[in-house]
Design goal:
Elements (H helix, E strand, L loop, with lengths): L4 H8 L3 E4 L4 E4 L7 H7 L8 H29 L1
Antiparallel strand pairs: 1-2
Length: about 80
């Protein structure tokens, strides 16, 4: 998957991921990007080898959910 530098870093750090059910980008609430960059994430993607992509994204999505859970726990403790 080819992403620009900013989005690639967000993906690597599990701040964004791809929903394999509808192929849309999921963005963590912790991400605060300018509106123009957020608009770039508001797209559906297409892939040529969907089965392989789905396997990888299932792993990535589980890592994303772990990170979101930790962030939500931290945010609730701060309040």
């Amino acid at each position: 998957m080819l992403l620009c530098g900013t989005h690639d870093k967000l993906f690597d750090l599990n701040f964004i991921t791809i929903d394999t059910n509808n192929m849309s980008v999921i963005v963590s609430d912790a991400v605060k990007l300018p509106a123009v960059q957020m608009k770039m994430l508001d797209k559906k993607i297409t892939v040529s080898n969907f089965d392989e992509f789905r396997k990888y994204m299932e792993y990535h999505n589980s890592e994303y959910k772990k990170k979101e859970s930790k962030l939500n726990k931290t945010n609730s403790e701060v309040k």
